[in-house]
C-alpha cells in the first residue's frame, strides 16, 4: 500500500507526513538522551529537519527494495542517531 501511495499523486503528502512523524520521534529521542542539551531554536529546527529528511529518504528508498532486513535497519538507524555508528 505504501508503494502505491508513493507512486501516486499523493506522494508529496506521504513524504511530508513521514518527515513530520520522523521529526517528532527524533525530537523525543534527543530529549530523552540529552535533556540538558541547549542550543538555539534555529539550530534545533535544522538538526530535526536534517535527520528527519535523511532518515525518511532512507526508509522510503528501502521500501522499494526486496529482501530488506528491517530489524537490522532499525538497529542501524538507532546507532546512527546515538552517534555510535560513525
UniProtKB/TrEMBL annotation:
It comes from the Bacteria. InterPro entries: TetR_C_Firmicutes (IPR039532). Pfam families: TetR_C_8 (PF14278). Residues 3-82 form the Transcriptional regulator TetR C-terminal Firmicutes type domain. This is TetR family transcriptional regulator C-terminal domain-containing protein.
Amino acid at each position: 500500500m505504501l508503494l502505491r501511495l508513493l507512486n501516486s499523486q499523493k506522494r508529496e503528502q506521504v513524504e511530508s507526513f513521514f518527515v513530520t512523524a520522523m521529526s517528532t520521534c527524533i525530537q523525543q529521542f534527543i530529549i530523552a538522551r540529552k535533556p540538558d542539551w541547549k542550543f538555539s531554536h534555529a539550530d534545533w529546527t535544522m538538526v530535526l529537519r536534517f535527520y528527519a529528511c535523511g532518515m525518511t529518504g532512507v526508509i522510503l528508498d528501502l521500501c522499494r527494495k526486496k529482501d530488506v532486513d528491517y530489524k537490522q535497519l532499525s538497529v542501524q538507524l538507532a546507532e546512527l542517531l546515538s552517534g555510535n555508528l560513525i
